[in-house]
């Protein structure tokens, strides 16, 4: 896929994620296992980091900062909603998910270069 396609996918992902994070959560999925919301935050931000990395040519640490700021904005937004609440644990899961992608990507690149170099 081209960078333009990833940029469009990233924009769509941000809109969808923001809507999902603003949505009222009900049902059995919440009680599937303890801290499922932290796992969801981590996974979503891992995927966002992957898409962002493919979409933009900016340093990884800038991407982690931008995604962390987005995570903070999501928590702030949730704090403003009467049926949601902010969580520092969710923010940590957000930042950890984004940072984990770049750590794994770095390790993968080093191993790939070593193998093919």
From TrEMBL:
Stretches that traverse the bilayer: 32-51, 58-76, 88-108
Keyword annotations from UniProtKB, A to Z: Membrane, Transmembrane, Transmembrane helix
Record carries keyword Transmembrane helix: yes
Annotated Pfam families: VanZ
Keyword Transmembrane: yes
Ranges of residues in domain VanZ-like: 32-108
Highest rank taxon of the organism: Bacteria
The name this protein goes by in its record: VanZ family protein
Species for this entry: Pseudoalteromonas qingdaonensis
């Amino acid at each position: 896929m081209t960078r333009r396609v990833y940029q469009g996918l990233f924009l769509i992902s941000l809109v969808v994620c923001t809507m999902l994070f603003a949505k009222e959560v009900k049902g059995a999925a919440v009680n599937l296992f303890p801290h499922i919301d932290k796992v969801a935050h981590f996974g979503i931000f891992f995927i966002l980091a992957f898409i962002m990395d493919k979409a933009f040519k900016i340093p990884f640490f800038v991407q982690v900062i931008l995604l962390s700021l987005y995570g903070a904005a999501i928590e702030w937004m949730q704090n403003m909603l009467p049926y949601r609440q902010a969580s520092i644990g969710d923010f940590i899961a957000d930042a950890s998910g984004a940072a984990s992608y770049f750590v794994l990507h770095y390790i993968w690149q080093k191993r790939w270069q070593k193998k093919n170099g």
